[in-house]
Design goal:
With 319 residues, this protein is α/β, with parallel strands linked by helices. It contains twelve helices and eight strands. The chain is globular, with a radius of gyration of 22 Å.
Length: 319
């Protein structure tokens, strides 16, 4: 797609002045469709965080639908065009949105400011685990930084900086006030998670998930990642029979009897693991990579993290 030249800021101001001479109805139509600031966000988790920061200062378009898989969702032609019309693009990066990153790169090359939140959040790298994986990814950056709310605080502050720097017409005081308010809510979330996880005995702080997604949470709150049914940082990989054998062996050695499966992913692989261990495994659903629709359990990032913390604490204490 050939991108139309972006208007210089002074020209935008001149156009707004000229619109004052146009009849009110026509002016409203023009400004609503063309000059309203636009922030486009790739994932719905970052979309919620961004909306908390910008409030009503800009339009926020979120490309990823509720309950979608960030590793596999794609864009329509209309959504791809939205990226190149944006005043700012916020994306997770670190390889997460595997089918979308080329569109983000195209927008960047056409002159749209972009912000890679994962890279700004002090990323960890994948580590090899007791299940033998993700060996092919060891040393590569882990994109799932949002499972640590302290890193989200860092990313949220930088999103505010990016909006102020690149989006014309926003009120900086409002953006900063929104960011400060949300930062306080994230700090409260961290404190509440710490208190909740204190209920889990040290010997039970062992995680097995559908794929390797909770490395940041484990690092922040003192868990051990035993392994994953899919021994990879992406859901696009598939486990082999030897992968499952390695994982069941690691689980037996660690005494783990709970597997956490993402609510937006089929649980078939976790159920297979339950069969491998003689039906003694409990499968607990988490919202690990996507928000839900509003009112469906994880409509916001804060709701998602509280729901996951409760499910993990109950699952690992036998409640």
């Amino acid at each position: 797609m050939t991108r139309q030249p972006r208007r210089p800021r002074r020209l935008r101001g001149l156009l707004l002045a000229l619109l004052a001479l146009v009849p009110a109805g026509a002016a409203t139509a023009c400004t609503d469709s063309d000059d309203r600031p636009r922030v486009v966000v790739t994932t719905n988790i970052l979309g919620d965080i961004t909306r908390e920061i910008v409030g009503d200062q800009t339009d926020v378009t979120v490309l990823m639908k509720p309950n979608a898989d960030p590793h596999s969702f794609g864009l329509s032609a209309v959504q791809a065009a939205e990226l190149e019309r944006a005043d700012l693009v916020v994306f997770n990066g670190l390889g997460l949105e595997e089918n979308v990153l080329r569109h983000v790169e195209a927008a960047r090359e056409s002159g749209v400011p972009t912000f890679e939140a994962g890279k700004a959040a002090d990323p960890l790298t994948f580590q090899a685990h007791d299940d033998g994986g993700p060996e092919e990814e060891a040393g590569q950056p882990d994109p799932h930084f949002w499972t640590d709310p302290d890193r989200v605080r860092k990313a949220a502050g930088q999103i505010a900086d990016q909006v102020v720097a690149h989006v014309d017409g926003v009120d900086e005081k409002t953006i900063r006030a929104n960011a400060d308010r949300y930062d306080g809510q994230l700090a409260d979330l961290t404190a509440w998670m710490e208190k909740s996880f204190d209920r889990i005995p040290e010997e039970r702080r062992a995680l097995v998930t559908n794929h390797h997604v909770f490395g940041y949470l484990a690092d922040r709150f003192g868990f051990r990642v035993i392994g994953a049914v899919i021994p990879s940082g992406t859901t696009l990989a598939s486990p082999s029979s030897s992968d499952l054998r390695s994982l069941t062996r690691a689980m037996r050695e660690a005494g783990v009897r709970t597997v956490f499966a993402d609510s937006s992913q089929p649980k078939r692989l976790a159920e297979v693991l339950r069969t491998e261990l003689g039906g003694q495994v409990r499968v607990v659903e988490l919202y690990s990579e996507s928000l839900t629709e509003q009112g469906k359990g994880a409509g916001t990032y804060l709701q998602m993290m509280r729901a996951n913390t409760t499910a993990m604490t109950d699952g690992l204490t036998g409640a």
